[in-house]
Design goal:
This protein is an alpha+beta fold and about 800 residues long. The relative contact order is 0.08. Strand 21 and strand 22 form a beta hairpin. The protein has 5 domains: about 270 residues, Orthogonal Prism (Agglutinin, subunit A); about 140 residues, no CATH class; about 35 residues; about 90 residues, 2-Layer Sandwich (Phosphorylase Kinase, domain 1), CATH 3.30.200.20; about 220 residues, Transferase(Phosphotransferase) domain 1 (Transferase(Phosphotransferase), domain 1, Orthogonal Bundle), CATH 1.10.510. Helix 8 runs antiparallel to helix 10, helix 8 packs antiparallel against helix 13 and helix 10 runs antiparallel to helix 12. It starts with about 20 loop residues before the first strand and ends in a 16-residue tail after the last helix. The chain has 14 helices and 47 strands.
Length: about 800
């Protein structure tokens, strides 16, 4: 069986079953399955029967794992046509089709096949595939119909995602609308391909009709846009393309491993999750989109996205920004255009520049021929004036096959260590200009070195320049990184903020005030000005600048640049018009603007940002100061994690660290960090749990007082859960908009995150699964800071009046 490398992850929709089922091994013309019976696979891996998802009472016919206590539905027949009672009947009718009947009369769902069987029989295979076959047919691999051809929201091992050219069948998966409704939402995953135009096939995620994320085409070894999809000891994968079929598929090498791929509407992700029997839970392993550059077409036409640079987007060689003003303000949507028009009709006027380490462009307007070599591919492209670029279709060995692109090149990104070569058409003079520029640089460098041998002043200047632009090293000893940022003049920022006028002040944190500003081109910015008396020194400042410059994700605030001039140290961010989360949830008037759907969206957005920091970015990053005031909201109330002044970078497999300089905000700080200086990803999980309880309740952890000298917010929530009265924690302004399941789920997850021992807290990847599933959760142990006396002294004192600005810094 051919295989396919989805190293992707997300939440699954689970359903709990409370019915005792009777077992059926197969059904034929004389048998049927009614509500309360199940069809079981040969080795008892899967069951098929009727179920009700989430809190819904509607009935669906589906398939789920038999021996996993967290019941996981992997396929649904009547996704958009539920049965309203328990009268459903599943059987084979007189024409040999599988039918789902309501009250034994009306057909709710049915199959169709081109061939009628003499003795039709339906079986559930141990792969999870429901098949209809002819019992007289000795070829067990021949099916009249199979559920694998009509997947729901989950890709099982051995399932094909792609096209059957003989029948025109397109196999793609689609997310459930929500946990109560398996009808397809607008998030779908499939293979983009036009067999008539011979385009280069590639898998993509779509939201509605718009592309949301491209994985990249198959390059002979893996799907080209994903570093993770290389051969490994757990999964085997393949791509098949012939006259009959074109599809991707994957298998697990160890049959005891249960690993599936899911598309999830809630998180807008495609994810791989694996069942961990020891923990009795599904664990997320990877997710798409992963980062900022995974957003489709982020750099516009003919641009390259590089997550390792501060500006993220660059134009291809021989191209320039279409609108310089927008490009300079980091709006790359208009993309790039050629510096000079190509001279297609003039011989030897056009050449190709080789770009390496790329995810190849969108293949919608491409043409492929696997029999051509690279030289023939170049000639083919050169002979067509519309051809913009070419590449190999297979990178194994010396490379083979040909794919060429027409028109603009869309959605290219740099992928260190996994990308491939792309040859882009440029006018010959562009290459010559590049050679001349390189020679000029070399000559200038030689002159500078020679001059330096005779000039003490030059030597001193070099030392000063080196000191001012020295590389910075994160506190944990991670590899040195260059401070690659847009450098603003102090005069520019002073003008933008009206010389740091109080009228422009947005707030003040422990390290200094933040001001709103407007640049000359009209772009609004937020300027963080390091206070002269702040305990954040140059190291913290550069740490924050270097970290955020390398981080690009839709749920992280974007750093535009910085300024280091004299005693001034300034960070320039994108402006968030709705300010911080705490300005809403702790305000009785503004709190009503955040109804429950928006609050739940914010919780999920924060988890996505943390998932990126902890697992999906190039280094594992611990924030160390997560709190509601460090969650900023954009115009659509999407959350963005901010303030990385105290963040730590972990390299390789490092999981925890310690410090003698404890910094953060009491109440949000995990106990092991507050008292002993130990921190890990579980420290961030603790802070996240506090925020979840605050978002649900509208109460601040530091000032919550249900009674004098009584429980803290965490203790109060835990006591309510013990009494099955959790809903009493809900903010009063949410009473008309809340979803009871989601609220109870968030409280439960929040309490799991604030448990005393780090080992008891879930990882953020598990939190992502928990929030989007119906799975049964473990009961949380007694939380940290249960009583006011559990809190550090500073947290029990009267709070400062300006809660937005309060960051407590303590030394150890």
């Amino acid at each position: 069986m051919a295989n396919f490398p989805f190293v992707l992850i997300t939440n699954i929709f689970f359903s709990l079953f409370h019915t005792t089922f009777s077992k059926v091994d197969s059904i034929n013309l004389f048998q049927s399955i009614s509500d309360g019976e199940t069809l079981v696979s040969n080795e008892g891996i899967f069951k098929l029967g009727f179920f009700s998802p989430g809190t819904s009472k509607k009935r669906y016919l589906g398939i789920w794992y038999k021996n996993i206590p967290v019941q996981t539905v992997v396929w649904v027949a009547n996704r958009c046509d539920p049965i309203n009672d328990s009268s459903g009947l599943f059987r084979i009718n007189s024409t040999g089709s599988l039918v789902l009947l309501y009250q034994n009369k009306s057909v709710v769902w049915s199959t169709s096949s081109f061939k009628k069987a003499q003795k039709p029989i339906a079986q559930l295979l141990d792969s999870g595939n429901l098949v209809l076959r002819d019992e007289e047919d000795t070829n067990l691999g021949t099916y009249l119909w199979q559920s694998f051809d009509y997947p729901s929201n989950i890709i099982l091992p051995g399932m094909k995602i792609g096209w059957d050219m003989r029948t025109g069948l397109k196999r793609r998966v689609s997310a459930w609308k929500n946990t109560n409704d398996p009808c397809p939402g607008d998030l779908t995953f499939g293979v983009e391909f036009d067999p008539q135009l011979q385009t280069f096939p590639e898998p993509s995620l779509r939201k509605g009709s718009a592309k949301f994320h491209r994985i990249g085409p198959w390059n002979g070894l893996r799907l080209g846009g994903q570093l993770e999809l290389r051969p490994n000891a757990l999964y085997s994968f393949d791509y098949v393309y012939n006259n009959d079929e074109m599809y991707y598929t994957y298998n697990v090498k160890n049959k005891s491993l249960i690993s599936i791929v899911v598309v999830n509407q809630l998180t807008s992700m495609c994810q791989r999750v694996t069942w961990i029997d020891a923990d009795q839970t599904w664990r997320a392993q990877a997710s798409l989109p992963r980062d900022y550059c995974d957003n489709y077409g982020i750099c516009g036409a003919n641009g390259i996205c590089d997550i390792t640079t501060s500006t993220s987007c660059q134009c291809l060689k021989g191209f320039k920004p279409k609108i310089h003003e927008k490009w300079n303000s980091m709006d790359w949507s208009e993309g790039c255009v050629r510096n000079n028009a190509t001279s297609c009709q003039e011989k030897d006027k056009d050449k190709f520049v080789k770009l390496s380490g790329l995810k190849l462009p969108d293949t919608t307007y491409s043409w492929m021929n696997t029999s051509l070599n690279l030289k023939e591919c170049e000639a083919k492209c050169l002979s067509n004036c519309s051809c913009m670029a070419y590449a190999n279709t297979d990178i194994r060995g010396k490379g083979s096959g040909c794919v060429i692109w027409f028109g603009d090149l869309i959605d290219i990104r740099q992928i260190a260590g996994a990308g491939q070569d792309l040859y882009v058409r440029v006018i010959a003079s562009e290459l010559a200009k590049g050679d001349r520029d390189l020679m000029a640089v070399i000559i200038a460098s030689v002159v500078a070195v020679v001059s330096g041998m005779f000039s003490a002043g030059y030597y001193i200047g070099r030392r000063t320049l080196k000191e001012n632009n020295r590389r910075i090293t994160p506190e944990n000893g991670a590899r040195e990184v260059d401070l690659e940022l847009l450098l603003f003049d102090l005069s520019t920022i002073a003008t933008a903020t009206d010389n740091f006028s109080m009228n422009y002040k947005l707030g003040e944190g422990g390290f200094g005030p933040v001001y709103k500003g407007k640049l000359e081109d009209g772009e609004e910015i937020a300027v963080k000005r390091l206070s002269m008396t702040s305990r954040q020194g140059i190291d913290e400042f550069k740490n924050e600048a270097a970290l955020i410059a390398k981080l690009q994700h839709r749920n992280l605030v974007k750093l535009l640049g910085c300024c280091i001039q004299g005693e001034e140290k300034l960070l320039v961010y994108e402006y968030m018009p709705n300010k911080s989360l705490d300005s809403f949830i702790f305000d009785q008037v503004r709190g009503e603007l955040l109804d429950w759907p928006k609050r739940f969206q914010i919780i999920c957005g924060i988890t996505r940002g943390l998932l990126y920091l902890h697992h999906d970015s190039r280094l594992r990053i611990i924030h160390r100061d997560l709190k509601a005031s460090n969650i900023l909201l954009d115009t659509e109330m999407n959350p963005k994690i901010s303030d990385f002044g105290m963040a730590r970078v972990f390299g390789g497999d490092q999981l925890e660290g310690s410090t003698n300089r404890v910094m953060g905000t009491y109440g949000y700080m995990a106990p092991e960090y507050a008292y002993n200086g130990h921190f890990s990803i579980k420290s961030d999980v603790f802070s996240f749990g506090i925020m979840v309880l605050e978002i649900v309740s509208g109460k601040r952890i530091s000032v919550f007082r249900p009674q004098r000298n009584s429980l803290t917010l965490t203790g109060y929530a835990w006591k309510l859960m013990k009494a099955s009265r959790e809903i009493e924690l809900l903010d009063a302004c949410l009473r008309d908009s809340y979803d009871s399941f989601q609220v109870l789920r968030c409280i439960h997850v929040g309490l799991l995150c604030v448990q005393q021992r780090p080992a008891d807290r879930p990882s953020i990847s598990s939190v992502v699964v928990m929030l989007g599933s119906e799975s049964e959760l473990p009961h949380p142990k007694k939380p940290s800071y249960f009583m006011e006396t559990d809190l550090p002294q500073e947290c029990s004192e009267s709070p400062t009046s300006n809660h937005i600005t309060m960051s407590v810094v303590g030394g150890r």
